Structures are given as C-alpha cells and as structure tokens.
Amino acid sequence: MSTTSAGTSSINRNIERVSPELVEAAARYQAAILADVAGRRGTVHGRVQPLSPKMKVAGPAVTVEVRPGDNLAIHAALAIAKPGDVIVVDGKGDLSCALLGEIMATQAKASGIAGIIIDGAVRDAHELANGDYPIFSAGLNPCGPTKSVAGLVNAPISIGGTAVNPGDLVVGDADGVVVIPRKDVARIVDLAQKKLDMESARIAAIHKGDVRPGWVEKELRAAGMLGEGEAL
C-alpha cells in the first residue's frame, strides 16, 4: 500500500527550519571550518561538487528522495520550497540520467530557492557553470530523466553518506557540502568563530617565520614515530 493511499502524503509541506539569522551567521564560514568544529562529521561524499568553484550556498534543507533517473519529486519540491531553502536530493549517486538542467534551475532561482544539491547528474553544464545560481552535483549526463515515479519530499534522507533531515542547515562551497543538524547550528556557529580566529592566528605566525606547529613532535611520539628525547 502506498503512503498516499494509507492517508498520508509523500509531500510534507510543513517543516521546522533553521532560522534565517543562523543561516546568515553560518554562511560567513567555509564548509571546512563548520565540518571541523562539528567533529569532522556531516560532510557529503566528495563526488558532490559545485559546477563552479565560485558557487556557495547556505540554507535550510528541503529534502528529496527519488528513484535513480526520475525527477518527479524534485518538481514537487520546487513547487513547495520557500525562498532561502536549499533543495537537497538523494539521487543515489546515479549518473545515468540528469535530474536537472537549465529550465529547472531557472525556475528555482526565480522562486527564491537558494540553491540545489543533487547526489546525481545534471545537464546544461555550460550554462549552469557560467551562471550565478548555486548547483552542486555528482556529475553530468546529457540524458534527460523520466517523470513518472513517486518519491518523497521533506522526509529524512541520506545523501553521499550523510543523513539530512528537513530543515537542517546545509552549507556548500568550493570544497563540497556539509550538513549541520538544526538543533546544533547555534553551537556550531559559535565554535566556528573560535576555530577561524585560531587558524587566522596560525597563518599570521607562519608568515612571521613560525613555520612548524608546536604540537607535531608530541603527536609523533604518541603515535610511535619518534622516541622519547628524539626530535625532528
């Protein structure tokens, strides 16, 4: 029995989103900084990359699950997503057919959707990569999708090995994509500033001639790569 016939919809229109204020605060940081302070968890598999390294996106996730090669549920997500949302698609890493192209990206941009992240293929790559609308994908394929198989919108998904719940914070940039659970965002943003301050201080120290981090020899001894009293 399908979920629809059982009295519930495959499309969840009402989700609790990370606040716009926290999205704005988190968007100031690299995905790498956020991933580090999140315990080096929450990063999407490196196959999912922006079509241009200049692209960056941050916002609450509108999640989509599709059968490989079918984009019907993505069209539903485009219809219900709110301005500032990021559509995040579990395309199963399949590259046999593109799930999105220039027309859908144009619709998303006109609707105020902040960007689209797809663990699958897209097409019209030249136009999209040279535009200013953030699109992240696992690859390219000129073959178009079918539009006939039911999927899920705003249900828990897994994309590139990372769990994503509707409303979670998603940040993507030239390094890739990181997902922060909605309840953790405020704490992660606070830690991110401390991490950024520390890294900025370390880079400044390197420029002044302090080229070797002080912790290296201690960790080498702990790993058995240096003996007691031995130095680099």
UniProtKB/TrEMBL annotation:
Stored CDD domains: RraA_family (cd16841)
Species this chain originates from: Paraburkholderia phymatum (strain DSM 17167 / CIP 108236 / LMG 21445 / STM815) (Burkholderia phymatum)
Keyword Nucleotide-binding found: no
GO biological process: methylation
Residues annotated as binding Mg(2+): D124
Annotated Pfam families: RraA-like
MF terms (GO), sorted A to Z: metal ion binding; methyltransferase activity
Name listed for the protein in its UniProt record: Putative 4-hydroxy-4-methyl-2-oxoglutarate aldolase
InterPro entries, alphabetized: RraA/RraA-like, RraA/RraA-like_sf
Cofactor(s) it depends on: Mg(2+); a divalent metal cation
Residues where substrate binds: G101, E102, I103, M104, R123
Presence of the UniProt keyword Protein biosynthesis in the record: no
PANTHER family named in the record: 4-HYDROXY-4-METHYL-2-OXOGLUTARATE ALDOLASE 3-RELATED
Keywords from the named record: Magnesium, Metal-binding, Methyltransferase, Plasmid, Transferase
